């Protein structure tokens, strides 16, 4: 095939980030407005050329470092596809999803590349969600160190999911809420490395395991209550739980002044709840709104310094 294009969505974590790395449940949803795109095309130049103009990447598979995540996608794909030798190809990646901002940009780029490669080589079984998610997880380890697996899961399935990391298989339950869930996603504009924040939480957990286990358990309990609120369509309760979750994330030390300012601004403008989303220390926050409050909360977030505010809906 001469040319193939594929995309993958971003994601937001509604509840349970960080605690999910320690085996507690979490809830995440696709952010379909922001996407990564990969184009695979036959080339007249020898070898495999890797281009990501937004990231300033212009390299070849042979020249890329061993831990280069884009090259790692190709290597994992070759292994799964039992590809003895690469044909001459160009793989180009674009993404609307800001990097290091808690929206799953790394996993989205990987998933888009794997989808495009699976289509190019006519190997549809490599593009089914469990297989895509498993391959994306391998690459996520390069970005994250010890990823829980929630990002690759929600992005590969492109559905809202209840997720729990466990052996031998993660618990993955796609769901639809009882009523629409409208969320504003606001960017602090601060980039923050998930790997660094996750490692810092690990150090703090090692230094004070009893306290951190209590915090993680409290987050897990919030997720269980949130699941009930989602199933019952109880948005007031859901919002309250988001704000509680944010307070536990503050206790973990993963919030920051800019995130706290946005959370406060959203609540004061009438959001039902608000919290940081993703690894924290920058990146994005989410606010639960209704049709009546969406505009006021959006304006409040912009006035409080948000760089970009998006409205997304989880459909019943
Ligand atoms: O990649 P981010 O920033 O959306 O964060 C992922 C969520 C964490 O729980 C912090 C890490 C993980 O692997 O689940």
Tally of contiguous helical segments? 9
Rg is: 20 Å
Report the portion of residues in β strands. Answer: 25-35%
Question: What's the total count of β strands?
Answer: 11
Largest sheet: 7 strands, mixed
Low-confidence region ranges:
none
| CATH architecture grouping of the largest domain | 2-Layer Sandwich
Query: What is the name of the CATH topology of the largest domain?
Result: Ribosomal Protein S5, domain 2
Broad structural category = alpha+beta
What order do the helices and strands follow? EEEEHEHHHEEEHHHHEEHE
**Domains (count):** 2
CATH class of the largest domain: Alpha Beta
State the helicity in percent bands. Answer: 40-55%
Instruction: Quote the average pLDDT.
Output: 96
- Coarse shape: globular
How would you describe the overall organization of this protein?
The protein has 316 residues and is of the alpha+beta class. It folds into 2 domains: 3-174, Ribosomal Protein S5, domain 2 (2-Layer Sandwich), CATH 3.30.230.10; 181-314, Alpha-Beta Plaits (2-Layer Sandwich). Helices cover 41% and strands 25% of the residues. It has helices spanning 69-81, 105-120, 129-144, 150-157, 194-207, 209-232, 235-251, 257-268, 294-303, and strands spanning 3-15, 26-42, 48-52, 57-60, 89-95, 161-164, 171-174, 181-187, 273-277, 284-289, 308-314. The strands form 2 sheets. Strands 1, 2, 3, 4, 5, 6 and 7 form a 7-stranded mixed beta sheet that branches. β9 (273-277) and β10 form a beta hairpin. α1 (69-81) runs parallel beside α2 and α1 runs antiparallel to α3. It starts with a strand and ends with a strand. The structure holds (3R)-3-hydroxy-3-methyl-5-(phosphonooxy)pentanoic acid (PMV). The site of (3R)-3-hydroxy-3-methyl-5-(phosphonooxy)pentanoic acid has 17 residues, from α4 and α5. (3R)-3-hydroxy-3-methyl-5-(phosphonooxy)pentanoic acid (PMV) is lined by residues 13, 17-18, 20-21, 102, 104, 144, 147-148, 150-151, 194, 198, 278-279, 283.
